[in-house]
Records
---
Amino acid sequence: MDQADEPQLIQRVREGDTGALGTLMGRYGDRVYRLAYGITRNEPDAEEVVQDVFLTLFRKIEGFEGRAALGSWIYRVTTNAALIKRRGKRAQVEVPIEDLLPQFLADGHRQGTLAWLMADWSQTPDKYLLAQENRDLLEQGLNNLPEHYRAVLVLRDVEGLSNEAAAEALGESVPTVKSRLHRARMALRELLSKDLFWPEVARA
Amino acid sequence: MVTCKDVIMDLLFDYLDQTLSGELAAELEAHLKICAPCRAYLATYQKTRDLAAAASRPPMPEEMKARLREFLLKKLAEGRS
C-alpha cells in the first residue's frame, strides 16, 4: 500500500476528483466499516460512523498530515466515533465484566462442576461452530460484552492490531489494553461455553 | 507453585503474547502438564479468540458504498460552494 500519496489524494477529493475518492474508499472503507460495526453492533449505526469518519477525513486533513500514518489516524477516529454512537444508544444496563469472568475457590482452583471445568470444545469443527444458529449466539456473546472491552477485542483480535496500535486507537495505555483484552476474551469464552456449546454442562 | 487462578488471571495472556519471562512460562507449562482443567481453559480461550475473528463482518455492502460515495460528494460540493 502506497501511503505517501495520501495527502495528495485527499486534496484531490476535496477538489471534486471522484477517482481519488474511489481510491481512498477502496483503501479504507472496509476497515472502517468492520471496526464501526464491530463496536456498534448494528448496521445503521455503523453506516453513520463510516460517513462521519470519511467526512472528518476530508475536512480535517491538516489535523494529521505529517504526524501519523493515515491508517492509525483512521482507527482512532473510527473507534471514537463508534464508542460515542454506542454511548448515545445504550438501551439496557450492561452486565459488569466481573460477572462474566471465571470464578475461583479460595485455594485458587477454578469453580464449577468437573464437567464444566473439563469442557473443551476447541476441537469442535468450525463448520459446526460457525453454522448460522451458533453464529447468532456468537454474535450475541459479542453484543453482551461491555463496549470498551468489545472495542479492544475488535481492534486486536479481529483487525490484528498490536497492543501499542490498539492503545493509540483507544487513547489508553498499553497495560490497560492488555488487561481489557484478556478480560474480554475470558468473558466471551465464558459466554460461549455456557450458551453455545455446553448448555447441559452449565446447567449441571 | 502457581495456582489455576494465577495461570488464568495473571500468566495466560502474556504467555500467549510471548512476553512472559522464561521462568514464569516454565512454571505455567509445568502446571498445564498436571492440570487438565487449565489445559481445557487454554484451548477454549485460544479458540474463542479465533472465533471472534471469524465473526468479523464481511466487506462493506455495495449499496452502502454507493450511498457513502453520494453522501461525500454532496457534502464536499456543499463545502466548496
---
Amino acid sequence: MTIIGWIQIALYCVIVVALVKPLGWYMTRVFTGEWTPLSPVLRPVEAGLYWLGGVDPKREQHWLTYTVAMLLFHVGGFLILYGVLRLQAMLPFNPQEQSAVAPDLSFNTAISFLTNTNWQNYGGESTLSYLSQMLGLTHQNFLSAATGIALAVALIRGFARSSMRTIGNFWVDVTRCTLYVLLPICIVYALFLVSQGMPQTLSAYVDATTLEGAKQSIAVGPVASQVAIKMLGTNGGGFFNANASHPFENPTALSNFVQMLSIFALGAGLTNVFGRMVGNQRQGWAILGVMGVLFIAGVAITYWAEANGTTGLNALGLAGGNMEGKEVRFGIVASSLFAVITTAASCGAVNAMHDSFTALGGMIPLINMQLGEIIVGGVGAGLYGMLLFVVLAIFVAGLMVGRTPEYVGKKIEAREVKMAMLAILVLPLMYLGWTAVAVVLPQAVASIANPGPHGFSEVLYAFTSATGNNGSAFGGLTGNTLFYNLTLATSMFVGRFFMIVPAMALAGSLAAKKSIPASAGTLPTTGGLFIGLVVGVILIIGGLTFFPALALGPIVEHLAMTANTLF
Amino acid sequence: MLKEIRPAIVLLLALTLLTGLAYPLAMTALAGVIFPKQAQGSLIEKDGQVIGSALIGQQFTEDKYFHGRPSATTAADPEDSSKTVSAPYNAVNSAGSNLGPTNKVLIDRVTADVDRLKAENPSAPVPVDLVTTSASGLDPDISPEAALFQVPRVAKARGLSEQRLQQLVRDHSQGRLAGLLGEPRVNVLALNLALDAAK
C-alpha cells in the first residue's frame, strides 16, 4: 500500500460526496415534476411521449398498479431483447456476420439485462452484432436503470407521504428518469469517453499487420455510447468480453476514475433525494454514512490483500503485489478500488479479473454482494435494499426499548417487517441453494476452472452475483452451459423481482399511514448511534447467513495460501 | 390494469428507439466529427498500412523488440472448433487467465517465466508485470521497470548502447495523471516504433 494509493482513494470519496447534493437537488426536482434547467427542451418531448402512450401524468397509481405497470414494461423489454439476439444474423449493423445467439444464451442474456444484472455469458465482441449491442443491450441498460430509480423514488414517496393511496405514476417516473437524468448525462459522458480513446464507430473490425508482421484483427464498435450508460446505470455488461479492463472499454487512468465515479454518482445522490423528500436531508446523510463505513472497510481489506500479493508470487521474489489479471495502467490500487465499488453498487463491470484476486481480496466483493449491494448499491436498488435493512434495524431497536418503532414519522409494524424480511431472506435462499445444487451435480462441477477451495468460490460467486443482480464474475467458471444459463437466469429473476414486489408493497403500506410527529421517545435516525445500529444489523444478519459458505471458500483458501499449498 | 397495456407498448417502443437507435447513432455521428481518430480506434498507420492501435497491445517475440506482458487470450482451434488454443493478443476475444492465487498451473507458468527472464538479465529483479497476464490479454503497457529490465537483450540484438535505450525508455515513460491517478507505464508499441526509427 502506498500513500499515493490512499490519496487516490480519498480523492474518490471526496468527489462522490461532493456530487451528492447537486445530484440530489436535480433528481428531486425531476421526480417531483418541478422546473429544471433542461425543462425548456425536454418538456415538449415528454408531453409528446405521454400523448402517444395515452398517459395522464397527473393520475397517480396504487402500489399494485405501479408494480403491474413495471412488470408489463419488463415483459415487453424481454421480448425485444430476446428477439434481437435470436434474429441478429438477419438484421442490419452486423459487419462481422455474427450468427444468431443460441436460445439458452439469449434467454440468459435477456433476463440478465432486464434485471440490471448484465451477467456476461455472452462474449461481446465474439458473439454480438452492433445492432444487438445498441438496440438490445444499450436500450435495456437505460430501461433497467430507469426502472430501478423509479422504484426507489416510489418507495421514498411511501415514507414521505401521509394517508395516501398512491405512490406516483410508473410511466412518468421512467420517462422522466430516462429523459432528464440518464440521457443528458450519457451524451456528455460518451463524448468524454471517446476523447479518452474509446471507439464509437459502425465500421467492421480492423485488420492490422503488426510490427513483427503477424496479422491482428482488432474489434471496434459503438462502444462509448454503451459504456456511458453501462456505468451510470450500474449495469456493468461489457461491450467486450474483458469488460472495463479492455483498453478500448477503459483507455486511461482518467477514464477509469470517471467510470468509478459514475458507478456511485446516482446511487449516492438518491440518498439525498430521500432526505429532501422526507423533509430532512440529514436522514439521507445518515444512510450514506452507513454505506460509507462499510465501503471504506471493504476498500482497506481488498487493497491490503492485493498489495501484499500471494504467497506463491512472493516466494519467487516478485515484488509489487498481485498483478495477475490486472492492467498496468490501473495497477493495484485502482483495480482494488474498482472491484469494491463495482460490487458495493450492483454494477458488475470489472477492470481486473476477480478470479485472480487473492482469497481475501476476492472475498470482499463477494461479501459486498451477499450483503445485498446496499453500499450505495445499484441505481435505485441500493437505496430500497438499504431501506429494508433500516426497517429491520429500527424494528430491532424498538424491541430493545419496548416501544413501537418508527422511522421518519412512520410507525414500523408487522406488515412492514414481514415485507422487509421476505425481501432479505429470498437472496440467500437463491445463492446458497443453487450453490449447494451446483457443487453436487457433475455437469455443473465440470464448469469449474480452478481446483481446490477456489473452485467453490467460483460457483458461490456466480450465484451470488446473479442473485444480487451484480454481473461481475469469477470468470474462470464456464457459465455458458445449459445448467448455468438456466439456473443463473432464475437467480437473477428471483433476486430482482422478489425484492422489488415486497419493496413496493412496503411503499404502499407506508404511504397509507399517517405521519406522526417525532416525540421524546423517538429514536433519532440522523446520528452516529443510528449509523452504528444499522451497520451492526447488516453485519449480524449478513454474517450469520453467509459466513459458513465463506469459510468453505475464500477463508480456507487464504489459510492454504499462507501455508503455500497449491491445488 | 388493462389500461396500462397501451403505455407499456407505446412507451417501450418509443424509448427503445430513442435509447437503442437514435442515441448510439447520434453519438457515432458526433464522435466521428469531434474525435475522428479516437472514434475509429486510435489506429496507427505506417506506409499506408494499419499496423495496430495505440491502445491495443500486440505480441512481440523477437529479441530486437521490447516485449509486452504475457497474454491469456485464446482463439478457436482451427482443427476442432469446439476447442480453443492459446492465441496471445487476440483482439477479437479479450480475456484474462482467471487462474486463482493457489492454482498450481499459475505458479508453474510464472516460475518458468521468471527462470527464463533471470537467465536473460541476472542483474535486476524480475518485474511482476512481466510474468503475470493482464486482465484483458491486450494490455498495451508495461511498467518502466519492465522496459528497463529488457534493455540489455534489446541492446545486444540491435547493437545499440544500453544508455541510449535507457534514455529511449525514459522518454517514452508516462507518469501518473497530474502526479496522482493511474500508474507509471510505457506503451510497448510506441516504444518499439521509436526503436525502429532510432536506427
---
Amino acid sequence: MQKSTNIVITGAATVLLGLGSLLAAPGLQAAGQGLDPKVCKDKDNPPKDTVTQGYCLVIERTKGNCMGCHLIEGMSSGNIAPPMVSIKQRFPEKAKLREQISDATKVNPDTVMPPFGRHNILSADEIDKIVEYVWTL
Amino acid sequence: MKKILMLLAALGVVAGTMPAAMADPASDLKQFQAFFKNKFPTVAFDEYSNGLYALPGLEEYREQWTISNEFPPYELGLSLGKKLWETPFKNGKNFANCFKNGGKNIAQGYPYWDEGSQKIRTAEMDLMDCAKKNGENFSFLTADLSKEQGPRVQLAQLTAYFYSLSQGQRVKIDVSSPGALKAYEDGKKYWWQRRGQLNFACANCHMDLAGKNFGGNQPLSAALGHTTAWPAQRLEWGRLETIHQRYATCNSQVRAKPFKHGSEIYNHLQLYETYMSSGLPLTAPAMRN
C-alpha cells in the first residue's frame, strides 16, 4: 500500500507540485533537484557529484532511509518527523546539520532519530554528502 | 548473564526513556493506560485489542483489514491447530486433558508465574510440556524454533487454537508473588531500554510513535493491546506466528540481535506487555499489517 502524502509549502511549491503530479508517473517521482533513483543503481556510471551521492545515501534503506521518517518531496515518506524542507534556511551552518545527523540525541536525548554517526550507520564522509543533498531541499 | 550484558554493551544499548522508578505494577498499569487515553481520547478501551486498526489516522488500513476479516487468511492455519489439538495422542489422551476446564477460557491468565519451577510460563511452554509428558514427538519439541519456521508455525497454529478457545476473555494475570514481580521488572526494563544500531526502545515505536506511519506504508500500533491478538498472521508473512517471532522481528528491525524463541527475557517481556493490557478482551488469532 502506497500512501501519497502532499503538503503545501508555499504558493510556488504548490504550482510545482501540481505540475509534478501531472507530468510525472505516479509513485516515486523525481525528488530534490529532479533526481531519479535510477541514477543510484547505474554501476557503469556511478554519480560523481556530492549532491547526487548524498541523495543516493538518503534513499538507500540500509543507509539514511531518511524518508522513512521525514517527508521528502516526491518520495513515499513516513510521517514521524518534521518534513525536510527549507533546510538551508533553517540550518545556515552546515556543522549544526552534520551534528543533527551524526548524533541527534545530543540535541534531544529523547529523540527517535538514529545516531547515524555515533552508531556507525553512516561514515563521516557519507554524512558530509547527505548534508550537501539535504541542503538543496 | 555476564555474556548478555557484554552483548548489550556491544550493541550500544543505553538506558532509554525510562521514567523515574515506578512504585508497583498496579500504578505502572494506571499510568500506562492513561498515557494512551490522553494520546487517543477518541479510542474506546476495548478497541485496543484490534491493534493498529484502533488508531485514528489509520482508517484506510482498518477498511482493508475489515474486508480481509470476512475470509481471514489465518483460517487454514487455525484449522490445522484445531486438528492438532483434537487428534488423540498415542496413549489416547489429548491436549485438552492437560488443561483446566479442557483449555477453555483460561488463556487470559497467561503468562503466569510458576512457583514449582520458579519461572514464568507461556501457553506455548504448557502446550509443549503436555505433548512431551504424553510421549509425543512433534518436531516443535526439539527444533530450534528461532531458525526452523515449519515447527515454529505448527506451534503457533496450536497456540492460536488454544487462545481462540478463550476469545473475548479479558486479560487478567497475577504478578503479586515476589518471583513474578522480579520477572515483571526485568520485562519492564527491557521495554524501556534503547537497543540496536538504530537505537530504539520498544516504547519509542509503540508509545511515542503509535499511530504514525513509518516510510508511508508501515503503520505502528499502540502497545496497549499488544499480546491480545497473538498468535497472529501478518499479510507480509502469510502464516500464523508466535509473539516471540514478532519480538524477534521488532529487534531485527532496529538492527539489534534478537533473543532466542522461548528465551526467558522474551517471556518476561511478554509478561510485562500482557500485564499492561490488563482488562482487554483476547482476540487471537488475528490479521495484522
---
Amino acid sequence: MDANPIIGLKVIRATDYPYSRWGMRLLERLGAIRLFFITSILILAACILGGVIPQGQPIESYQEMFGPALTGWIGRLGLNNLFGSFWFLGLLALAGVNLAACSLRRYKALFMRPGVFLSHLAIMLIFAGGMLRGAYGQRGYLPMEKGQALSSFDDDRSGKIHLPFSVQLKDFRLLYWENERHALHVVPRDSTQGHQTAELRAGEKLRLPALGLEIEPVRYYPDFVITEAGAGSKTDAPENPAWELKVGGRKDGASRFVFANFPDFHGPDKESYRLVYEYIPGRIRQYESDIEIVEDGQTKLSQTIYVNSPLKYKGYRLYQSGFDPKNLNFSGIQIAKDPGVPVIYAGFSFLVIGLAWSFWGPNSSKRR
Amino acid sequence: MASLGACAAEYLLKSSTRRWTTALLFLSWVALAANLLARWQIGARAPLANQYESMLFLLWAVLGVFFLFYSSKLSFAGLLPALTVFLVVSLATASLLDSSIQPLVPALQSNWLLLHVATVMVGYGALSLAFLAALVYLWRFKKGGAASQTDLLDGLLYRAISLGFWFLTLGILTGAVWANSAWGTYWSWDPKETWSLVTWIFYAIAIHLRRTRGWRESRFAWLAVSGFAFVLFTYFGVNYLLSGLHSYA
C-alpha cells in the first residue's frame, strides 16, 4: 500500500492483491481522484448549460432565442431536456460509480476518517433515492371541480395510473390578507379644486357635498361584457372590472359605467368632473381545498389541504398546487408517490453529519 | 463610519484605530440584528421573505462569521478595509431594493423559510468572507510575505470555505425537504436549484483540490474568487435573469 503524501490516506494498489489484480486495477481506475475531477467538471459544465438554456420549452421558442443553427445543436445534444438526457444521467451514474469505487478502494483509510466515508455514502444514497424515484415514482395532476371525484391520474412516464381510492373535492376557498378594493376618484375638471377618493361598495351611497354629488354604486361586474341581454360579467375573475353607478343630478337619471382598464372612458357628458375607477386587487393569504378520501364506498379521511400542508394516504401525497382565478370552483392538486424519499432523506442526514465530522470532528482537516 | 475607520486605520497603520474600527463593526452587527428583529416583530414573520431582507441577513452573517473567526492578528492582514467596503457597497445595493414589509405569499408560509433561507445566507456570508480574504491575499501576499500572515489568511480562507460549504449544503438540503413538502418533489431543476448545485459542485471540487492535490494559498485564493462569481450569480443573477419557482425571492 502507498500513502497519499498530502492527506496520508492509505490506498489499496493492484500490486497489493496479486490474486485479483485485474479487478483491483479496474477499481483503481474507477475510483481515481482524477476521474472525480473529470466527472465533476463535466457535471458542472452541464449544469451551467442547463441553467442558462431554458428547459422543456417548445422548439419555436429556442429558434426565437438562439436562431436556427444553434437550435439544431440544442436538439441534437438534448440540451432542451438536458437533465433527463441519457448522457447527463450517464455522467451522474459515472460519478456514483467513481464514489463507490473510491470508497471501496480506500475503505480502510476511510474508516479512519468516517466523516469522508459518511459524506461519500450520503451522495451514493441520494443517487440511489433518485434511481428509486425514477423507477417507481408516480406523479400527476388532479384538475378538480367542487363536488368532483377522481380515482386516476396521468403520469408523464407511466401513463394512466389508477388509485386504490378516490379523491373528492368537497370545497375550495381563497383566503385574503386584504380583500380586493374599489376606489372611485372624483376629479374636477377645474384643476384648482382637489380630487376626492371614496371606496365603492354595492348599495352604499357616496355623498360628496363639496362637488354637490351623490353617487350610488349599483352593481359590480368583475369581467364586464355587453351581450344581447345587456351588461353582464363573462367570468368571476377581475379581467375587466367595471361598476354601474347612479350619479345624482344627471338629467336623464340613467346609469353610467366606469372601467378600471379604461380610466379615460367617461361617457358622452361634459360634466364638471371626471370619475376614475381604480381596482385594487386583494392580497392572497392562502388557498385551500377540503378533500375526502373514499375507499370501498367509505370515507376514510377528510382533510383540508393548503400550500405547504399536504394530505398523506397510502404512500400518496396530495398537494394544493393551484387555482383558476376565472373559476373559483376549480382546484389544482398535485399527487405524488415517491418510495425514494426515505433513502434520499437518509442521504441528506448523512451528508450533513459527514461533512461536519470531516471539517470539525476528531481527525478532521480543519488545519489543512 | 466603520468603513472610514478601516480605511484610515489601514492608512495610518495604527492598531488603536483598528480596534475602534472593529468595535464599530461590532456595533454595525448589533444594529443589523436589531433591525432584523424589529422587522420580525412588525411583520410577525421571519425577515427573510424578499431580496432586501435576505441581503440584510447576509450582511449580518458576513459580520457574524468574521467575528466567529476573529483574531486581533487578522486585522493586520488588511481584511478590515475590504470587509467594510463590501458592507457599504452591499448596503447601498440593498437600499435600491423594495424595503416594505409585506405579508407572506402562500408558498413561503412555512417554518422551513427560516431554516432554508437562514442557512443559505450564512453559507453565502462565509463564502463572501472567504472571497474577501482571497482578494486581500492575492493583492498583498501573492508574491510572498510574512509567513505568519499568509498562513493566517490561508487558514481563514479554508475555514470560511468549509463553514460556507457546510451551510450551503444544509441550505440546499433544507430547500429540497421544503420543496418536497410543498410541491411533492425535492428537486425540479429550477434555475435557482441548478445554480445552487453549480456553486456547491464548484466548492466541492475546490475543497478536493486542496485536500488531495495540495492547492493552497494563491491557487486556493483564486478558487475562492472564482467560486464567489457563482455565489453572486446564484443569489442575484438567477433572480433577475431567469424565472422559476424562486421568482418571489
